[in-house]
Amino acid sequence: MTTLAVTVGHDNSLRDIAKAAGAHASVGVGHVGRVSALVFSRPALAACAVLGGAPATRETELLRVENTVSTVDGLVLSGGSVFGLAAADGAVRFLAEQGRGFVTPAGAVPIIPAASVYDLRAPFSVSAKPSSSDGSPPSLPIDVDFRHMGYVATADAWEQIHGRVMREAEDGVGGAGDVGGVGAGSSTRAADCRSGIGTASFRVRWGKADHHIAALVVANPFGGYFAPGGFPWAHALLYPEDNRDWRKVRKTPPAQLFGGEACAAPPLMTNTVLAAVVTDAPLPVSDLQRLALCAGDGIARAVRPSHTPYDGDIVFAVSCPVEQGTASTAPAAEDTIDLGIWCGVAADVVTRAMIRAIIE
Questions:
Q1: How far, in Å, CA of 292 to CA of 117, rounded?
Q2: Are 218 and 176 in contact (CB under 8 A)?
Q3: Tens of pLDDT along 10-26?
Q4: Which of 179, 290, 309, 319 holds its CA 20 to 30 A away from the CA of 49?
């Protein structure tokens, strides 16, 4: 009798997906939007589900199953609200330099969907006047070069995926296994605690089928993590690798999270959870669309409420399988893992990633 085995991945992070790599770039001053980038070793099938009422996104419409381009070269998750979407420009530039992208008569065009959280903490304005006498456009209201961060994070993820040693740049680069206040999670928070980047993974085995699924989240939810008793709402769903002394988590009212008038907590309507679910199982786009929708349940299990009008919640689902050998080595039909199983596991791995994003 074939049995299902779901265990925590060896690294319990995106690193367990052999054909994907991620990196976080932190450039700038203070608590302001940073960038996390994912790169895939070859074009990967992808889909997405926009679940919140206030998304900030780029290239998501392209991922609809009826549209022409079904593969992506990477993903960019950022802070900085709509300004942070410029990080995808840097990612596109780097991958274009490597010759990656959708082939057109004029050359390869990298496909990089992107999404951003709102983590701007201080009031800002944009001057209507040019910033210099040469007529150049006014500068951004925040002192961050998102394009540069997107380039740096993508370059580092590219080096990881091609087996090079991750460089320690002065820009501040971290890897896909990092959690907490790194990359796009540098200045995020939940309603009742500090949050950041979270990642988790599972190994899923069914007969001869042996695959991994991992999630990377940027947790900036409108909702809260903790039930009245002091434990997370999702406590019963966690594995031993996820648990900790929850009494040490600083359950702080939002207005006190950053301290000082300049870093006062933002009002409502400035939230979002971004999630990327990546598997090495060969799933078609239609299945990935369902996977993305179901993975969003993992957010709802971790924070309450979720997917509100004030959240821009979005889930990307990506399939980047390990190269198959001959047809005789592929799993038989009876060893193929059912989509329903993948949907349940995807929700669970997102919940665990959300919990691992909590900062003590």
A1: 18
A2: no
A3: 999 998 998 776 666 65
A4: 179
- Residue 48 within a domain: yes
Q: How far apart are CA 61 and CA 256, in angstroms?
A: 38
CA gap 161, 154 in Å, rounded: 10
Tokens representing 208?
């001869």
- To the nearest 10°, report the CA torsion of 234, 296, 185, 73: 140
Total structural domains in the chain? 1
d(CA 25, CA 255): 27
- Residue 168: the pLDDT is 44
Residue 99 has pLDDT above 60, yes or no: yes
Q: What angle do CA 216, 217, 220 make, to 5 degrees?
A: 165
In the chain, the amino acid numbered 142 is I
Between vectors from CA 348 to CA 344 and to CA 349, what angle results, nearest 5°? 120
Averaged pLDDT, 208-225: 93
pLDDT by residue (tens digit) across 278-298?
A: 999 999 999 999 999 999 999
Distance CA 164, CA 226 (A): 40
**Residues paired with 277 in a beta bridge:** 215, 317
Contact 213, 171 (CB under 8 A): no
Read off the tokens for 69.
């381009």
Residues in CB range of 244: below 8 A, 6 or more apart: 360
Q: Which helix (H) or strand (E) holds 286?
A: helix 285-302
121: its two tokens: 């903490």
Antiparallel, parallel or unpaired: β 107-109 and 35-50:
unpaired
- Cis geometry, peptide bond prior to residue 305 (ω within 30 degrees of 0): yes
Q: What pLDDT does 151 receive?
A: 92
Closest CA to 316 of 97, 16, 37: 37
Torsion-angle region of residue 307: left (phi > 0), alpha (psi -120 to 50) or beta?
Answer: left
Residue 126 included in any domain = no
Tell whether the torsion through CA atoms of 218, 161, 243 and 172 is positive or negative.
Answer: negative
CATH of the domain at 311: 3.60.70.12
The boundaries of the domain holding residue 223 are 4-121+144-356
